[in-house]
């Protein structure tokens, strides 16, 4: 028996009392959403809607107050669209219940990590193979080092105490860079493994049906374990290293193509694109992975715009970015031998064989530091350095944020990302330059003056001070 109500509300739901009979209250805000009250007073949200075949289906959305009215309305809208798309929501729930009732399969920690890697290698860069000679991802490699003694065990039998002990007792096999502890690497392994276990158990961002592993596993939660980096004073979190003017003057002449001969690197100058890739990184304030994955088809030669199919954002998930380049950045591309004959799918900065992305960066970085007589900086610090130079030269913070892809300039403006395709038309009609292009041109001019030894910066940049806009690069 149904009782008509004008609309569901949190106040009305809190006042519901058991009547000894089951009844339903219909929501007037979301079509098909109802609150079903049992004879004992328990409240469950349900959706009654038709599927792609026109059949009326009832989908249980959750119980109140564990699921709020707002969450129920959002879930109802999603479920209605899923039904229209032909998704069998109730069938998926039955499969999960059936799988849970069956004897659990033996899944080792190694099996689970490999499963996760296979599922997310295409969408999560840390889980993609490290290179053509390795099938393992960087995340898997770190996990297998730190949790080596647990890999062969049934993952549901491994407790949070076991995981915590593995992290706290881990010692670096080959100490490097003078570090006394391996807390940084142990912390990374913990950070990589946490989402794997959450995916297996259907927790946090993997709680929705279809987002987690099927069947789900009752595995430990790393949120209850200690992060060794939290109590290590030598690990300060975000890097804030910026190269000084003197360091840039020493490094920039080595970032050329063909590659200068430095250290004991054996690659032929014409086959080593790492130096020129680092120069391009510095001229565009891009991330290294963005430069390494850049293809010739991503570069608009008419508008001089670099289309990045996917960039990491500090606000929201991955998205694309269109970055107008300075003439100096474009000239870096022009000097490459593939400029006139490259296929659109070819990498702009390929490895020595020409069929894969650049790699072996640690060895090259070490040789570069020795040749330039610099130390204590990382490749990613070039991006932070570029941002700091632009800020020192009074480039607006909002423009730097757009270049770094920390924010979406079109968010909330109801403007499509293809707007940058009209850059040439804008130049002709308005006789203006894109602020990002102008900022990168200012950066390029500064770098040219630094390289030739005729640029004197203000004290804040000389001493490596970091502006607020670049602290979270």
UniProtKB/TrEMBL annotation:
Keywords: DNA integration, DNA recombination. One of its GO terms (biological process) is DNA integration. Residues 238-441 form the Tyr recombinase domain. Gene3D superfamilies: Integrase, DNA-binding domain (3.30.160.390), Intergrase catalytic core (1.10.443.10). Pfam families: Arm-DNA-bind_3 (PF13356), Phage_integrase (PF00589). GO terms for molecular function: DNA binding. PANTHER family: PROPHAGE INTEGRASE, PROPHAGE INTEGRASE INTS-RELATED. Belongs to the 'phage' integrase family. This is Integrase. It comes from Gemmobacter aquaticus.
């Amino acid at each position: 028996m149904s009782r008509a109500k004008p609309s569901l509300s949190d106040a009305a739901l809190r006042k519901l009392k058991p009547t000894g009979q089951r009844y339903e209250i219909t929501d007037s805000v979301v079509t098909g959403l109802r609150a079903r009250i049992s004879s004992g007073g328990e409240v469950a949200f349900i959706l009654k809607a038709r599927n792609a075949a026109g059949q009326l289906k009832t989908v249980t959305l959750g119980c109140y107050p564990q699921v709020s009215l707002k969450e129920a309305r959002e879930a109802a809208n999603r479920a209605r669209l899923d039904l229209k798309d032909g998704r069998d929501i109730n069938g998926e729930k039955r499969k999960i219940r059936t799988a849970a009732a069956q004897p659990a399969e033996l899944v080792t920690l190694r099996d689970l990590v490999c499963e996760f890697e296979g599922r997310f290698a295409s969408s999560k860069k840390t889980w993609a193979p490290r290179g053509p000679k390795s099938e393992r991802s960087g995340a898997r490699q770190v996990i297998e080092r730190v949790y080596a003694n647990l890999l062969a065990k049934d993952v549901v039998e491994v407790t949070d105490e076991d995981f915590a002990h593995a992290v706290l007792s881990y010692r670096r096999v080959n100490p490097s860079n003078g570090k006394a502890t391996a807390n940084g690497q142990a912390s990374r392994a913990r950070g990589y493994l946490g989402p794997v276990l959450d995916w297996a158990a259907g927790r946090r961002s993997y709680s929705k049906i279809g987002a987690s592993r099927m069947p789900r596993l009752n595995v430990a939660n790393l949120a209850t374990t200690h992060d060794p980096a939290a109590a290590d004073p030598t690990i300060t979190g975000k890097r804030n290293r910026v190269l000084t003017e003197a360091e840039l003057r020493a490094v920039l002449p080595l970032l050329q193509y063909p590659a200068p001969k430095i250290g004991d690197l054996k690659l032929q100058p014409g086959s080593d694109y790492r130096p020129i890739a680092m120069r391009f990184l510095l001229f565009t304030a891009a991330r290294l992975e963005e430069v390494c994955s850049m293809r010739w088809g991503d570069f608009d030669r008419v508008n001089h715009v670099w289309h990045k199919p996917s960039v990491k954002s500090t606000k929201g998930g991955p998205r694309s970015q269109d970055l107008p380049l300075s003439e100096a950045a474009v000239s870096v591309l022009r000097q490459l031998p593939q400029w006139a004959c490259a296929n659109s799918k070819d990498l702009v900065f390929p490895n020595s064989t020409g069929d894969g992305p650049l790699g072996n960066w640690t060895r090259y970085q070490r040789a570069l530091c020795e040749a330039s007589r610099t130390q204590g900086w990382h490749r990613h610090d070039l991006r932070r350095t570029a941002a700091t130079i632009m800020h020192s030269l009074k480039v607006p913070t909002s423009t730097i944020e757009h270049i770094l892809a920390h924010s979406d300039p079109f968010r909330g403006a109801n403007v499509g990302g293809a707007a940058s395709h009209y850059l040439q038309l804008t130049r002709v009609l308005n006789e203006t330059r894109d602020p990002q292009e102008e900022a990168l041109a200012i950066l390029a001019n500064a770098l040219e003056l630094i390289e030739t030894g005729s640029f004197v910066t203000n004290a804040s940049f000389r001493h490596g001070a970091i502006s607020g806009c670049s602290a979270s690069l």
